[in-house]
Write a structure and sequence with these properties.
Elements (H helix, E strand, L loop, with lengths): L7 H19 L5 H84 L5 H10 L37 H9 L19
Amino acid sequence: MASKKENKEVVLLEKKVDSALALSQTIEINDDKALVKGIDFLKNIKTVGKAIKQQKDKLLIPARDVVTGIREMFRSTEDNYAEAEKNVKKKILTYNLKVEEANRIKEEKIVARVEKKTLKPETAVRKMEEIKEAPTQGKVGKVAMRTVRKVEITDEALIPRKYLSLNMVLIRKAALAGVVIPGTKVVEEKTLAGY
C-alpha cells in the first residue's frame, strides 16, 4: 500500500486543506459582502471534504470487504470453537463443584466425629489430608478454579437513581415524536449547514 506521501491525490488534498485551514483562521465575516464570500468558501471546504471522503473510501471500502470476507470465512469455525470450549469448561466446572461438595461433606463428618469424641484429633488431621481435590492438570493442559464476583439485579425498583443511566436515543426519539416525558423539554437551537 502506498504511503500518504506517495499518493499524489492525498498530497493534493492535504495542500488544499492546509490552505483552507489557514484562510479559515484569518477570514473575518462582518458585512454582507464578507458573508457571501464566507458562504462560498464554506462550499469550497465542503467540496474538499467530499473529495477526502471519496479518496478515503476508494481505499477503505475494498479493505472493509476483505476484512468482512475473512471474518465470514472464520465465523462458523470460531462459533464452533467457542461452543466446544464452553461445553468442556462447563463439564469440568460441574465435576469440580461435585468433588468440592463431596469433600465438604467428608470434612463436616470428620469434624462432627471429633466433636463427639468418636475420632482422635490426630486421626482427623490424617483423614482430612487424605481427602483429594479434583485434578487441575492433565498431561498437556492446566485449569484453575477461580471465584468470580458478579452482581445480579434482584429488584430494579429498589436501585437508587444514581446507578441508573438515561437512554438518550430513546428519550430523544419519543420526545421529538410528541411524547410528553416528565423532566424533559424539546428545545430548538440554530446550527449552520453548508451545501
